[in-house]
Structure formats: C-alpha cells, structure tokens
Amino acid sequence: MVPPLLSVTLVFRPRPEFDGMADIISSVSAYADSSVEQPLHKACKFGSVALLDRIWSSTADLEPSGWGLWSVRKLLRTHKLYGKLQFTLCLLEAAKINSVDIARWLFERFPYGVRRKVICEAAKAGALEILQFFRANGTTIRNEAEQQDEDEEWDEEKENWERGRYIRFGGLDAAEAALAGHDDVVKWLYATYKETEERRNDDSAMRAAFSVGNVELAEWIMAEVGFEVQGYLALHKAAGAGLVETLQWFQDKGTYTECDAGALILAAEDGQLKVVQWMLDRDRKDDKLKNGDVAGPEYGHRARSTFITCLGGEASLAIHSAAVNGHLEVAKLLHANIDKPRNQAEKEAEKRRRRKRIHELSNYFDLGFRPRDVVREVSGETMMLAAERGFLDVVKWLYTEYHADPSMALFWVRGQVDEYGYSEKIDAYSDVQSVFCSVVDAAAGNGHLEIVRYLLHVGGGKAEDERAPKRQRTDTYPELRDCYKMPGRAEQR
Predict the structure, then answer these.
(1) Which residues of 358-384 are buried (b: 16+ CB within 10 A; e: fewer)?
(2) In what helix (H) or strand (E) does residue 237 lie, and over which residues does it extend?
(3) Residue 168 gets which letter from DSSP?
(4) What letter would DSSP give residue 343?
(5) Which InterPro entries does this chain map to (predicted)?
(6) Cα separation, 170 vs 157, whole angstroms
(7) What is the pLDDT of residues 155-173, one digit of tens each?
(8) What letter would DSSP give residue 299?
(9) What is the distance between the alpha carbons of residues 166 and 180, in angstroms, rounded to a whole number?
(10) Global pTM?
(11) Which of 97, 278, 305, 307 makes the best surface tag, with the fewest CB within 10 Å?
(12) Non-local CB neighbours of 61 within 8 Å, separated by 6+ positions
C-alpha cells in the first residue's frame, strides 16, 4: 500500500472528524498524486528510487473498483512488450545520469536483457559504474552468439537465449566513449574483452580517438588490438575537425599521402584555416610531387602524384567549399596559392585535370558519409549559394575575383529557386528561359537585402553591359546560343 502524500496528511491532521478514516485520506492522496501517472522512463530522469517505488507500488487503478479499464501502470504489468520497451528506455535514462541505483532497481523488477544502444549510451556518458554493474549482473554475448548484421537488433527470444540476462557489449561502445573523451571507459572495455570476447568495431574506436585529437588513446587501442587504423576516414575527420596534430601523426607514420585525397576540401568546408595552411606547407615540402599529369610505380600507394595547388588541383575545388560555407579567409588563402593558367594550352590542361579530379574525388566522397556533389569548381553556383546563405563578404570577393572571367556567369545560374532554396535540378517540362534562375532572386527570397543592393549595384554598370554576350555562357549551352529567351543584362538588373 502506498502511503498518502505528506501534503494530504497535513491537510487532514487538524480535522478530527476524519480520524480513523484512512481510506478517505488514501483516496484523496491517490486523486492528488499525478506523479504515479507518468511513464516509468520519464520518472527515471529525476534519479529518485523513491519515486519509482511509488509508481510501482501504486495499485489504485488495479483494484476491482479502480478508475477505468486502462492505465500506463496496467500496461506495464500486463504487456511484456511494453515492459521491455520501458526497461530499455529507463536504462537509457539511468545511463545519462550515471545512476547505478536506478539500474539496480530495474534489474530487480525486470528480467530482460540489455541492448547495445544502452551500452553505447552509458559509454558516451562515461558511466563506468553502470557498465561494471552490467558486466557483473548479466551474461555477455560472445562473438559466436551474435548476428552478422551490425545494425539489426538482437533479440533473446528470436535467438532462443537460455543463459540468463544477456548484456550486449561491443559494436560502437568504445567509439562512443572515445568521442566523448572517456579514456577510462575505453580502456576498461578492452581490458574486460579478454574475458568476454564480444564483437567490437575497433577501427571505429581508433578513428573516434583520432577525430577528437586523442592520438595517445588511438595508439593505445592499436597496440591493444594488434593492427593500425584505416587512415582514410580518420584523416578526413581530423581535417574537418581542425586537428593538425592528428594529421601530423599520419605524416610522421608515412601514411598521410595514402589517404589525403579530399581532406583539403573537408577542411575548407568547415573553415579550418590552420589545417588548410598546414596542408599547403606540407605539400610544398614534398619533393615527390609534380605539377603535370604524371603517374607511375614510383608513387606507390599515394592517393595523388601532383601538388594540390597545381592547375586543376584539389585546392581550386576547395575554394567553392569554403566560399559557400562563408569561410572567406580560407577561400582567399586557397585562391592565393593555386596555379593560374597563363595561356590557352594551360587553360585546356586545367579544364581536363579539373574534370578528372572532380570524378576521382566524387568517388571518394561517395562512401556514405558525404554527398558526391561536395566536389565543385568555382562557378555561378558558388555565387548563388553564398548569396542565398547571406555571406555578403564572400559575394563581394567572388565578384571582385571572377567577374572578369568571360566563361563564368555570376548572376544567372542553371537550376531553379523555390521556397526550399536553390536546386540545380530542372523540371523536364520547363521552357528554355526557366532553366536559369537569378542570384538576386535567391538573395531576396532569403531576406538578404544588403546582398540584393550590392548585386544590383555592380550589375548595372556600363562595363557589365559591354560584356553581356560573353557572360551568358552560350558556349556551354549551344542550344541556347540564338534563343531570344536567354537571360540578358536588362533582366539581370
């Protein structure tokens, strides 16, 4: 029987006419006590075992004269599936607040197993005591007992589990702990692995350590598991996070050039100026790199044989990534260091190499963690996205640096602008004129008044009118060369 609320007891205490009427006091208390109506996992957020006891022991709606046919507490006792759900949700809350008392209370009342998502949440929270409690009060699933599909939930009924409460360690638990900076949890997980042999994603754990700049922990894991990290993803994450020390580790180990393709673009995209500068400096000191189209066995496992700043190199593509994300200083640094074509032959070579580089890098980025279209050269689309996102300083810089290029249209871009923003995808039934959209419209549609004013100002000069035929890029779309619907300078104003 749940004792009445203290507040209710105090209300009835000065009224002697209710002496001996405990049922009335209990009924009023049950009516006033809304805490027992909340789901168990929400109550766990308070970290109070007393509150859980009150909810669990409250039986007013379970008695024959209860207030209705359904309640959360009835569901908890009568439906096994709901009980499983609440058990897992409650453990997740216990892990977040690192409450062993809550975990112990749940273990005393529910016989269910601990799923991997709970282990990962506890590892991320640094809840070492809870993990140790799980290890001591359950049966760890070993490698041979697990399903091959990493993402599929393991179910004790489906697998005919008959060896007591299962605890599913492994997977990304060490990686989650490493990302959150809980070295003690990572080392404990690997120390106890010798006894349990659960399946763990060691490569992800090493990458996680590298991605937060914890080289010491990454080296410890490598020594523990007996193999080295697959550098591609680890290096890319480090570049995007601005971790020069991690990149230097790969350089010192001699594996940097095996997996650095695309890293500069990610660093530029995230505005990591120090990383970009480090990459440019490292490249200049590499005496095995060339400027031209060269390849051969002497380059071994290198991801590239040319400088990132050569004609059509990765640095020229990284400018777009920096600009559309508002990182002007990074864009300026890259633009100042890339090689520029000096004649027509070099212009053709630049186009050829750039197409090849875009194709190669797109394959790198098509591995599931970044979209392919992150690899772009500077174009009208760069101006479009910068204007749409409100980067006035970037818009001004792009116009200053590129408006004199007769092959680049900065005010009109192939694609469409709607309530969702700019998209390069075009309706198959669109007419010729509607396949182009205005950069000014994109800026105006997102409320960037200063950008609209600037674009209208620089787009209204005489020099711009004189260059108009060249700026329409009819060489790229020959079917539009003689079309009267092609956007002209009057429309751009």
Answers:
(1) beebbebbeeeebeeebbbbbbbbbbb
(2) helix 231-241
(3) -
(4) S
(5) Ankyrin_rpt (IPR002110), Ankyrin_rpt-contain_sf (IPR036770), SecEffector_AnkRepeat (IPR052050)
(6) 20
(7) 555 544 445 678 888 889 9
(8) G
(9) 26
(10) 0.72
(11) 97
(12) 67, 68, 71, 73, 74
